[in-house]
Amino acid sequence: MRWNVPIVREKLGEFKARESAAYRQSRPLSAARANQENGFFGGVPQHWMLDWPMPFPLVVQQASGTNLTDLDGHILTDLCLGDTGAMFGHNPEPVAKAVQAQASRGLTSMLPSVDVEEVGSLLQAKFGMPYWQITLTASDANRFALRAARAITKRAKILVFDGCYHGAVDETAVNLTAGRTVAKPSLWGQAYDLAAVTTCVPFNDVEALEAALKSDEIACVIMEPALTNCGMVAPASGFLDEVRRLTRAHGSLLLIDETHTLSTGPGGWTGTYGLEPDIWVAGKAIAGGIPTGVWGFTEDMKRGIERVRTEIPAGHSGVGTTLSGSALQMAALRACLQDVMTETNYAAMIAGAIALEDGLNALIAKLDLPWSVIRLGARLETVFAPSLPTNAEQMRASFDYELEAAIHLGLLNRGFLVTPFHNMLLAGPSLSREAPAAYVAALNSILNEIL
Predict the structure, then answer these.
(1) Residue 251 in contact with residue 216, Cβ under 8 Å?
(2) Alpha helices in 311-434 (DSSP H)
């Protein structure tokens, strides 16, 4: 649904053509790279890098703090931050020093390193769970935790919320379409009907959740405290309390995935608002950008895992990944948890996000646009709707991909990199005081050309 926004589509197309030409002209070195065969599909190491709304991929020369410098020498204020992977800034000094030091002592051995005790204590203190495991990614952490949940409960199904994102876990990559659980179009080559193992219900819908849990076949409810990938959707008042009450009532475990909502505060949404999950997951930024995922769990979960381990043959206690828990990861985790994820850094991040929020709200009011802004800690988003959606269906109805792509390209040409998939911004701890006003001014200049 396109709300009554005074955007002339012909002017929007002309704007996009001008901005594309400006991008091409100002980036000859990146353009030359794009035209060369380099051995990678599409010229990029991951095909989704082609999804950015730019004529050809931007090649990054270096990154530091909240700035990126591209191959052609343009310095960009980064409000994407690797879609959370660099949430605490690019190359945070404590992590860089820890990685450099560990490199001289060995990277991986498939055995615990000397940092294990300190990292375990830091994880317990920051996030509350008594027991922890390390993986390479949050996707792996979710995958392994769901496997454990199924083994413990002896139930096959999981439940997710429409619009969720839990990484590359196949059974979570679903949409709710006409009341049916179906695989997302982006889940290529899916070999089986995901509805056999996954139930999908609308976010913020207590009745739908209760109806699904009454089957007593759900091993685990896996959820973000707020939707962050289909657009940002906050939980309604009392919704998360109801999720916890209902999962306990029906013998289902609750997994809270804080990979994105870690931006809420030093303990994530769970620590900030006092959630009580059985399993807690994070990744991306948790080790300052070094590939790492973590999953923590309760005493009851620990006893369940111990029981499961006694039921399998000795010597092969589970399918994992060899590089998980490496000395390199542990050194980076220790540095990030101890010296980067500090109250001071979070205060700076949230202050920057508030400044962006205030500026965007003022601009929307000045231009009388039927848009709104949502902020969750250091993360915020402009929504093309007059009131904030409460579920994924409402959020999808607000999308305007043509407008979004034009704005993103215009911002890039004006010195700002934003998340490519929707209008989400992430404020890093070193974001300058001038950056929020400059961002709003850049957006204003774009809107003046297309309104």
Answers:
(1) yes
(2) 327-335, 343-367, 392-397, 401-413
Cβ 100 vs Cβ 128: under 8 Å: no
> Which residue ranges make up each domain of the chain?
9-78+343-450, 93-340
Close Cβ partners of 362 (under 8 Å, ≥ 6 residues apart): 440
- The token duo for 371 is 């848009």
Of 117, 115, 166, 165, residue with least CA distance to 143: 166
DSSP one-letter code for 87: T
Q: What is the DSSP string of 324-350?
A: TT-HHHHHHHHHIIIIIS-HHHHHHHH
Neighbour tally for 383: CB within 10 Å: 21
Beta-strand relationship, 253-257 and 279-282: parallel
pLDDT reading at 2 higher than 80: no
Q: What gap in Å lies between CA 326 and CA 344, rounded to an integer?
A: 29
Angle between helices 327-335 and 93-103 (to 10 degrees): 150
Tell the burial category of 104 from Cβ atoms under 10 Å away from its Cβ (0-12, 13-18, 19+). exposed
SS3 382: strand
Phi, psi of 436 (to 5 degrees): -60, -45
Maximal CA-CA distance, the chain: 68
CATH number of 9-78+343-450: 3.90.1150.10
Give the Cα separation of 278 and 298 in Å (integer).
Answer: 6
Residue 267 DSSP symbol: T
Residue 1 pLDDT greater than 60, yes or no: no
- At residue 39, the 3 state secondary structure works out as coil
Write down the CATH number for the domain with range 93-340.
3.40.640.10
CB 377 within 8 A of CB 429: no
> Smallest Cα–Cα separation from 84: which of 123, 144, 137?
137
Residue with tokens 């080559």: 189
The per-residue pLDDT for range 128-139, each reduced to its tens digit, is 999 999 999 999
pLDDT tens, residue by residue, 228-258:
999 999 999 999 999 999 999 999 999 999 9
Query: What is the mean predicted confidence (pLDDT) over 78-90?
Result: 97
- pLDDT exceeds 70 at position 421: yes
pLDDT number for residue 6: 73
- Single-letter residue type at 329: Q
- Rounded to an integer, what distance in angstroms lies between the CA atom of residue 117 and that of residue 129? 15
